[in-house]
Amino acid sequence: MADLLKDPMVLREIIMDHYEYPRHHALTNGHGYLRAHMASESCIDDIQVEAKIEDGIVRDVNFEGVACTISTASTSIMTELVRDKTVEEAREIMKNYFAMINGDPYDEDLLEEAVAFAGVSKQANRIKCATIGWHGLEKLLAESEKKDD
Amino acid sequence: MLQGITMNGKPLVYLDNGATTFKPQPVIDAVNYFYNNINSNIHRGDYEIAFKADQAYDHCRKTVAEFINCDEREVVFTYGATSALNTVAYGYARKNLKEGDVILLTRAEHASNALPWFRVAEETGAKIEYIELTPTGKMTLWNLRKAIHEGVRIVAIAAVTNVLGVKTPVREICRMAHKVGAVVMVDGAQSVPHTRTDVKDMDCDFLAFSGHKMCGPGGTGILYGKYELLEKMDPMLLGGGANARFDSKQNVILKEAPIMFEAGTPNIEGVLGLDAAIQYLMKLGMDNIESHEQELRDYLFAELAKLDNVTVYNPDGDSAIAAINVKGVFSQDAACYLASQGVAVRSGNHCAKMLVDVIGTNDTIRCSMYFYNDKADVDALIRALRTCTLENCVGVFF
Ligand SMILES: Cc1ncc(COP(=O)(O)O)c(C=O)c1O
Hints:
The complex is a heterodimer of chains A (149) and B (398). By secondary structure, chain A is of the alpha+beta class. Helix content of chain A is 46%, strand content 17%. Chain A has a single domain, classed as Sufe protein. Chain: A, CATH 3.90.1010. A 3-stranded antiparallel beta sheet of chain A has the order 1-2-3, with helices on one face. In chain A, a hairpin with a 2-residue loop joins strand 2 and strand 3. Chain B has 2 domains: 259 residues, Type I PLP-dependent aspartate aminotransferase-like (Major domain) (Aspartate Aminotransferase, domain 2, 3-Layer(aba) Sandwich); 109 residues, Alpha-Beta Complex (Aspartate Aminotransferase, domain 1). Helix content of chain B is 39%, strand content 17%. In chain B, the strands form 5 sheets. Chain B has a 7-stranded mixed beta sheet with strand order 4-10-9-8-7-5-6, with helices on both faces. Chain B is globular.
């Protein structure tokens, strides 16, 4: 797996697969879910993220919206990565993801398929796309902690 | 103008002229001349360079008047089309409209020719109505006739729309609007740079356009208004340069139009550059520019029609502006891929967020050309579009 994730062809396939068949791509609008509506300043991407966070664990994350390959695929991968993690673990993944997008050192093992977006750090104009869904989740995590207080 | 500029290691093919244009050397020289030789503020030419700056600034008013066929007194310098449109919405419409009056727009308008009117409507109780457009964004005289009625006080309309490049029948609009006593605000941001403009012939009441979309510096624009209307307007900004006298009892006497609308130190160097830009365009000849662009338009649409992976939303568009999408590829992904091939285009909704009601899609790729583009640029675009697959778009990141 680790080696496969170094092959650009494979990484490209991962992005395309998550774009064409996004995971968890329907909001439940269910009880106990927090929701964030994220509209990118690039004025195209328009994504909604919802999460159910219970007892400090991310039980469910879904998203919906009109968006480019990068924002759709990065959000789709995110919904898989943070599912069933503790809020703390999710934050750690998020921290490493943002580090990668900014071109800083990061822990590959934590990011799994999300390493496909490492190249975005070289395309400054697409950083917003690669982080829009993640920023949505960041908001929801913060909101859930406020509620717990 | 674009000689020697590269993007991603390829010669730049600049097809985003609807957003802004490159500047010819005389324009850059004019701005530099101001900084290097006559840097000073205007309106108080007590010393030589200030006097020269004053003269140069005023000269541009003459140039604009010649360019659009009006009187110098009818030329107001603004910061762009947006501030010109807001000046009329604030200074004329807000003052003269009342509850139930109608402001007539189209759904193809740019935010700058929609939002100021929305606010006027909110503040005065006036209503916004729309002239219906065909699915490719055209205005038929029939739909125009249906939309105009006695309640209409203002018609605000782009002479050329910014996403579909559609020419609207402004003369007919003015004629019909005037019959019911309405005033016509023409948004010329996408028309004035590309075609001969004659405000007398058109008989519009107001015209707004931007300098930077016609080879001029950023932060420059023009509001033309019939003088008797300008005289009746409130300035949006108050301050230095635009008042004749005021005292501590709050007695204020404003200067006359157009100076009344130019409070604060203007973009003097920009205005000098705009003068050079307009002279440059007049020397090329607006008719020559238009016929060159018509030729490009025909070639562009003919070549696009040959691509089966591309949807064209305005195959009957009137300008060298194409609104397209690559099938199965999100507009922004496609635009980034085109950029990797050296082709600069714009993706998104282009500030025309109501247009989705007309063409049924929220976002497109807009390719917009100017006189310095040629058929080789179209060829480069077509080549890049041909290879614009989802794989290649994602491939940009590896
Ligand atoms: C039709 C139209 N109107 C108004 C504007 C606003 O021009 P500016 O941003 O220069 O004020 C634009 C430019 O984006 C436009 O295309």
